[in-house]
């Protein structure tokens, strides 16, 4: 019998009236008479952090997500007080905190409400684990839309959805299934043509409800930890995404080969099978830059070992593959086999590097090698040790990339598929249970892997891929969407997942082309390749349980389509590399859903299929069998059909005819699209010309092209080439102006210019005010204009 009423379940608790506040530089702290503290920190004029505690003091402020190398600063900060509220004002927004109950409202400078609390912050004491279940509810306006949240297998617009964030191994997941492999507790709200963002930086299991339970209420909560969130104001979605990406960090440039086509399967072995696959790519002239080795390359699935029966001399094999243009990428999982004769296990045991249960024994679970222990990657010493284990793989054998899998962490034959929640973690000196560390375990493994590969690959750039990730993982690794299925529905899911990941700061992402589980038809594989070549990470991967999934596993028509679209990707590598450069320099997502591209056009708010690849190529995949066309939405402006060069006006839905070897592709009028010649792998060819496809537009349009040595770090010393093209189209004239920055001298000396959509017959061509002669007839027949790469202004004048 409970006699002390203080121990009775009290339900939700709320802040009471504010009794004091204090202001120190960029932070303002408000105290209530029931010991709640709200600390408001102004990081930028449009970026404000809200941090609550219910115990009268804050625990150590620590986050794996925030990029601490990035500095912040605001232009204006003013604190004022009325009878009812305190007001914090910056040059972009004003925030009001009610004195009676600490509820918040955020306005723009014209007094328009951007975001306001419904119940606001509240909490529930957790008697099972201690601490609090922390909750936040916000009022939502009619017509408000929601986007982001990373890897979710559902509609791009999250309105009406309830979602869960708990990194989970979901083999053959379904549409709308929750939760999945990645945790990105960041969303974008769009209402009345104004965008804002919320990043709830809490690594416990979290939930988001976008008007699902209550029509005009959005809420988010966590099973522990703090109510700690960042508010980001746009008003453009571009500004929200860029600010969030700056906050959580950006990667370094990958080597260009990492943006090529990759081939993977569970599993390619023995060596003769690997060589057979790579030779077939070269025979069929389908470009490919990387071949992957899944768990069967190891000795009994022990990480950092080789099966000597299957791969008797891995260094020689890797070297021979490299001579043929293939980079070898190998898988490394977190489970370390319990085997006293196994050097990695012995060393981790001696140094006490494995995760432990609450009562002291090591965490033990079954994975591919059998019973395993698991390193605690939240311990800096363990990460340093783990990084050192890559010396042999990278610097001695010559492996070029590492693929981290099963790092949710996944554990077999247990009901919850992962560690028990009582497992303890160092958490960089902030000891905690697995409840707090679970969602960042995979990221910290990828972080340790990244530092190891980078150390031993130097002076080349590292390449890492991970299955599980938390916000900020993009600083260390690329990712893929996990164990999908060879179905048309999963093709639809893949399209949305990669768009959403791009919006959520993790741009270097792709799906398993063709589906990991089960077997695609030739038509499905072809349609998936046609989409996958427009994803930043481009890899076919499949389970060997369901048959072969190389391009030649299908008929000649599918082989030809695969070659055609992989060739197109290799031609577009300078365009893709430029997209990546803009992502790491400016936080601009590489794939842009239509709502990001034009949030003021309400017709974009619920579009799922179409996206803008880079800044100027519109892609719309074919997502149904037996399709010879589809309806799609063309954004506002003028666009050219890539296949026919027909110009169309946007802001409307149209029918687009397509053949089996095409998908709807459109190029923005005025664009300058750079293209390389087709190569079987990056660096295969020396070439003296860069092709520029220039699409006529009446008016002005800017395009950029970034290039460097394609690997290494000289680009950080200014050895890069950044070209800015400005096209100006008039009734009978096209002017192309070129400005170059950077100290890198590209190996080619000329531009091969293809003019598309000119509305006039060419009379005169001037390069830097000097007329040049050209064969009018051959130009009309499709020959190109060749100009020196040092030109600064090109005039095409009509008759």
UniProtKB/TrEMBL annotation:
Protein's GO biological process: carbohydrate metabolic process
Domain Glycoside hydrolase family 31 TIM barrel: 251-579
Protein's UniProt keywords contain Hydrolase: yes
Record-annotated Glycosyl hydrolase family 31 C-terminal domain positions: 587-673
Listed Gene3D superfamilies: Glycosidases, glycosyl hydrolase (family 31), Golgi alpha-mannosidase II
Gene Ontology MF term list: carbohydrate binding; hydrolase activity, hydrolyzing O-glycosyl compounds
One Pfam family recorded for the sequence: Glyco_hydro_31_3rd
Sequence ranges assigned to domain Glycoside hydrolase family 31 N-terminal in this UniProt record: 38-209
Record domain DUF5110: where: 689-757
This protein's record includes keyword Hydrolase: yes
Keywords: Glycosidase, Hydrolase
PROSITE patterns: GLYCOSYL_HYDROL_F31_1 (PS00129)
Superkingdom classification of source: Bacteria
Record InterPro entries: DUF5110, Gal_mutarotase_sf_dom, GH, Glyco_hydro_31_AS, Glyco_hydro_31_C, Glyco_hydro_31_N_dom, Glyco_hydro_31_TIM, Glyco_hydro_b
Similarity comment text for this entry: Belongs to the glycosyl hydrolase 31 family.
Protein name in the entry: Alpha-glucosidase
């Amino acid at each position: 019998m409970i006699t002390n009423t203080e121990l009775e379940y009290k339900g939700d608790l709320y802040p009471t009236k504010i009794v004091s506040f204090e202001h120190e530089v960029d932070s303002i702290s408000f105290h209530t008479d029931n010991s709640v503290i709200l600390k408001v920190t102004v990081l930028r004029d449009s970026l404000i952090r809200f941090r609550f505690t219910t115990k009268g003091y804050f625990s150590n402020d620590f986050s794996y997500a925030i990029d601490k190398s990035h500095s912040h600063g605001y232009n204006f900060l003013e604190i004022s007080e009325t009878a009812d509220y305190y007001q914090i004002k910056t040059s972009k927004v004003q925030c009001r905190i009610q004195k009676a109950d600490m509820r918040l409202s955020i306005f723009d400078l014209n007094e328009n409400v951007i975001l306001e609390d419904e119940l606001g912050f509240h909490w529930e004491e957790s008697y099972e684990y201690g601490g609090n279940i922390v909750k936040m509810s916000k009022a939502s306006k009619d017509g408000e839309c929601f986007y982001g949240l990373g890897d979710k297998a559902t509609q791009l617009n999250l309105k009406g959805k309830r979602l869960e964030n708990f990194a989970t191994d979901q083999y053959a997941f379904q549409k709308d299934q929750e939760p999945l492999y990645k945790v990105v507790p960041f969303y974008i709200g769009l209402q009345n043509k104004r965008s804002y963002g919320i990043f709830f930086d809490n690594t416990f299991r979290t939930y988001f409800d976008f008007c699902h339970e209550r029509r005009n209420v959005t809420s988010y909560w966590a099973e522990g930890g703090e109510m700690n969130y960042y508010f980001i104001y746009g008003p453009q979605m571009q500004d929200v995404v860029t600010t969030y990406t700056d906050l959580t960090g950006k990667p370094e440039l990958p080597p260009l080969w990492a943006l090529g086509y990759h081939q993977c399967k569970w599993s390619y072995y023995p060596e003769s099978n690997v060589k057979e696959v790579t030779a077939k790519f070269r025979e069929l002239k389908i470009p490919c830059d990387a071949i992957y080795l899944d768990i069967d390359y190891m000795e009994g699935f022990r990480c950092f070992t080789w099966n000597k029966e299957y791969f008797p001399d891995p260094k020689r094999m890797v070297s021979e593959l490299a001579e043929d243009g293939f980079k070898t990428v190998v898988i490394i999982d977190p489970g370390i086999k319990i085997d006293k004769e196994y050097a990695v296990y012995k060393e981790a045991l001696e140094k006490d590097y494995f995760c432990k249960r609450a009562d002291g024994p090591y965490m033990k679970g079954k994975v591919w090698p059998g019973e395993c222990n698991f390193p605690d990657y939240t311990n800096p010493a363990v990460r340093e040790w783990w990084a050192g284990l890559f010396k042999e793989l990278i610097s001695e054998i010559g492996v070029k990339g590492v693929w981290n899998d099963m790092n949710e962490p996944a554990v077999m034959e247990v009901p919850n598929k992962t560690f028990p929640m009582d497992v303890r973690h160092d958490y960089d000196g902030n000891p905690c249970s697995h409840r707090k560390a679970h969602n960042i375990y995979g990221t910290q493994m990828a972080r340790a892997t990244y530092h190891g590969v980078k150390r031993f690959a130097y002076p080349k750039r590292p390449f890492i891929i991970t299955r599980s990730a938390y916000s900020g993982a993009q600083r260390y690794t690329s990712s893929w969407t996990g164990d999908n299925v060879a179905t048309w529905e999963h093709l639809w899911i893949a399209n949305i997942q990669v768009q959403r990941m791009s919006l959520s700061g993790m741009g270097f992402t792709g799906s398993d082309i063709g589906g990991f589980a089960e077997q695609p038809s030739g038509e499905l594989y072809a349609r998936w390749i046609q989409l996958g070549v427009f994803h930043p990470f481009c890899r076919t991967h499949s389970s060997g349980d369901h048959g072969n999934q190389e391009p030649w596993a299908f008929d000649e028509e599918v082989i030809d389509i695969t070659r055609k679209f992989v060739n197109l990707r290799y031609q577009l590598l300078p365009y893709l590399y430029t997209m990546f450069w803009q992502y790491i320099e400016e936080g601009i997502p590489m794939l842009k859903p239509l709502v990001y591209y034009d949030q003021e056009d309400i017709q974009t708010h619920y579009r799922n299929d179409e996206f803008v690849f880079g800044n100027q190529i519109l892609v719309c995949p074919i997502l149904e069998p037996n399709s010879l066309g589809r309806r799609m939405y063309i954004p506002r402006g003028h666009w050219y059909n890539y296949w026919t060069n027909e110009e169309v006006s946007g802001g409307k839905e149209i029918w687009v005819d397509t053949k089996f070897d095409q998908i709807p592709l459109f190029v923005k009028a005025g664009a300058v699209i750079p293209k390389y010649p087709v190569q079987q792998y990056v660096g295969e060819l020396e070439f003296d010309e860069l092709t520029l496809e220039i699409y006529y537009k009446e008016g002005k349009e800017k395009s950029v092209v970034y290039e460097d040595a394609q690997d290494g770090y000289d680009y950080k010393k200014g050895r890069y080439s950044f070209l800015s093209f400005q096209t100006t189209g008039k009734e009978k004239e096209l002017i192309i102006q070129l400005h170059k920055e950077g100290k890198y001298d590209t190996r080619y000396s000329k531009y091969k210019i293809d003019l598309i959509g000119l509305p006039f017959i060419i009379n005169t061509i001037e390069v830097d005010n000097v007329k040049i002669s050209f064969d009018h007839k051959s130009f009309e027949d499709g020959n190109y204009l060749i100009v020196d790469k040092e030109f600064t202004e090109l005039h095409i004048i009509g008759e």
